[in-house]
Amino acid sequence: MAKKKELDINTEAKIKNAAKNVFHKKGFAATRTRDIAEAAGINLALLNYYFRSKEKLFHIIIQETMQDFMKSFHGIFNDEKTTLDEKLELVASHYIDLLVEQPDIPIFILSEIRNNPEELKEKFQSRHLFFESVFAKQFQKEVEQGKIVNLSMSQFMMNLMGLLVFPFVASPLIKATSELDDTAYQEQMLQRKKLFPIWMKRIMYTKEGN
Amino acid sequence: MAKKKELDINTEAKIKNAAKNVFHKKGFAATRTRDIAEAAGINLALLNYYFRSKEKLFHIIIQETMQDFMKSFHGIFNDEKTTLDEKLELVASHYIDLLVEQPDIPIFILSEIRNNPEELKEKFQSRHLFFESVFAKQFQKEVEQGKIVNLSMSQFMMNLMGLLVFPFVASPLIKATSELDDTAYQEQMLQRKKLFPIWMKRIMYTKEGN
DNA sequence: GTCTATAACGTGATAGAC
DNA sequence: GTCTATCACGTTATAGAC
After folding, report:
1. How far apart are CA B77 and CA B87, in angstroms?
2. Cβ within 8 Å of residue A36, ≥6 positions away
3. Distance, angstroms, CA B49 to C1' D15?
């Protein structure tokens, strides 16, 4: 039988899990190791026993967070069997579900990169991930065919990420300005799963002067 | 004659200016008052003499930053004489110029709001700013006329902010993944001044099944 | 108003008993 | 492995001379 779901058994995992939650919510500078220990239900000394230092623990967390976040892009963007449009639908569906579950991830990654650009950027080696993907080839082909106009690949990627991720980065603001409670906000996000591909296609395929 | 440009005269202003730069770049938790004092070229004690505490100084800075950032929206969105399309062009032109000059503002505001949602959200009372503006009325009218489809006002505002602001929030990442140096990145941003309105119109006015 | 010196406190990390 | 107690240090804030 497979290993039982380890909720309380492994204290190392308990600490890591607590660290993930607290770091994601408050960022490196604002979290105290005591917060993590408390959230894990263990003593402060144990944290250093298992992970040596706050920094070491943090590196593990941000490393895994970035990796987990990016890995789905790779799978979706490099599938030879799906069209460009289908990839957009898959990306929206997958990432909006993910971000509804863990909305703190983008602002966590972005603000930590701001605080440590040189070190963290390289972990995020997404250059080839985006620009040398099957997706990029399909995109380029449609540009050459004149189907896509007024939109380079890099501008397109900014638009994609902006439409996909920004509503989560700005969620506290959106909730406030739109007077949405948590469930109403979440409904809006889920709605975007079907609307995002529509908007992206409009951006790609519409030509001015119709 | 108007008051001379005060670069060195007023030390209070010197401190405030240094605080703005440092806070914008590193956020509240990661900045030390010593950093600010050093950047201002003054002694640490003077900071407390003028502003009592790090927190008080911070509140002044974030307050003014938010206000400065939002105030142009009000002017542009409530002009009865411009059309919806013209407002989009004005917003893009104004804000992209602003953000090229001060790219740290959005990530600063967003990450500080994350760390203190209840307190800071209310300062950002942009509800009526967006949803009770002339812009909102013009938008609503086009929805009723069937010109705008598959796009509510709140979803539209998320898209607008996402396309406008996200490339600056994610600038370190974009520079890394697109292998752009600073000037190339800036050119891309300036290009968006004319592309943004095009894309927004595509999102608003295209109907599926053309 | 501006400085130096220092107090007061919070936080990361460790020693050492169990 | 896990805990309590404590150290070592950095940072905010203030006292007091000038």
Report:
1. 7
2. A15, A18, A19, A22, A23, A47, A57
3. 12
Q: Flag if A202 and B206 touch (Cβ within 8 Å).
A: yes
Spell out which residues of chain A touch residue B124, defining contact as CB-CB under 8 Å.
173, 176-177
CB-based contacts of A52, cutoff 8 Å, min separation 6? none
Under 8 Å between Cβ of B155 and A195: yes
Considering only CA atoms, name the residue closest to the C1' of nucleotide C14. A45
Provide CB contacts within 8 A for A49, sequence distance 6+.
none
Radius of gyration of chain B (CA): 20
CB A69 within 8 A of CB A42: no
Least Cα separation, residue A50 to chain B (angstroms):
25
Q: DSSP letters of A154-170?
A: HHHHHHHHHHHHHHHHT
Three-class SS state of A153: helix
Nucleotides of C under 7 A from a protein CB: 1-5, 10-16
Token pair 């592309």 is found at B195
Give the residue carrying structure tokens 């992970």: A51
Which parts of the protein come within 7 Å of strand D, by CB position? A 11, 42-46, 49; B 31-34, 44-45, 48-49, 52-55
Q: Cβ of A127 and B158 within 8 Å?
A: no
- Smallest Cβ–Cβ distance between A167 and the set B122, B158, B206 belongs to B158
Residues A13-38 as b/e (b if ≥16 CB within 10 A, e otherwise) read: ebbbbbbbbbbbbbbbebbebebbbe
Rounded Cα distance between A189 and A130, Å, is: 24
User: pLDDT band at residue B8, thresholds of 50, 70 and 90?
Assistant: low
- Quote the pTM value: 0.95
User: Is residue A52 helix, strand or coil?
Assistant: coil
* Model confidence pLDDT, tens digit, residues A21-54: 999 999 999 999 999 999 999 999 999 999 999 9
